[in-house]
Amino acid sequence: MSLKQWGVALLGCAILLLTACTVVDLDENGKPIMPADPNAKANFDNQTPQQIAQQTWQERVIDAAHKKALDATALSTQLKTPSPDAESVFVRLTSKVERVDLSNEREQKLIMTFNGQPLEVQTGPVMRGNAIRDATGFKFEDFTNQVQFAQLSRAYNREAVKSLPKIDDSWTGKTATVLMAVTLNGGKAENAAALELKQEAQ
Fold this sequence. Notes:
The chain has 202 residues and is of the alpha+beta class.
């Protein structure tokens, strides 16, 4: 092979190598910023529970609730064959509001009827329980910082309250539709936390 042919071959190899390279941006310290692996497990190590709740709210809570929510019939069936362990699910229920509990202004509730029994639905501003977090499918082992997992419930509960309408006694006797997270425990629905709430036209 002549010197000219060697030169052409080397040039071709160099072009191939360059086109195979991916240009990576550098951060302020000159270190490469690697793109996130779409298949990688979510890493929340450096985020506060509030940041995690805000970042995942639409996809893990609202979108998932709209896709997976049980209706009254499915919920009734599930309560009749309870799981040995408590589990949280999303539920959509349209029912008459029997009364509004404003006795504690920080923990206001609508009392609706489900299967002939009263069901308390929390509307805030403070909600109790882990129903929202657990209905998302997040598990303890998803977090290397377990404090985040423990505090994520409170962060999600606070996030839920932001978009809920203010309730008062005028809701009593009206029909309302609520999208909520509920913990099913021993055949009972507990810690129902409203995600979306609206009165239906009479």
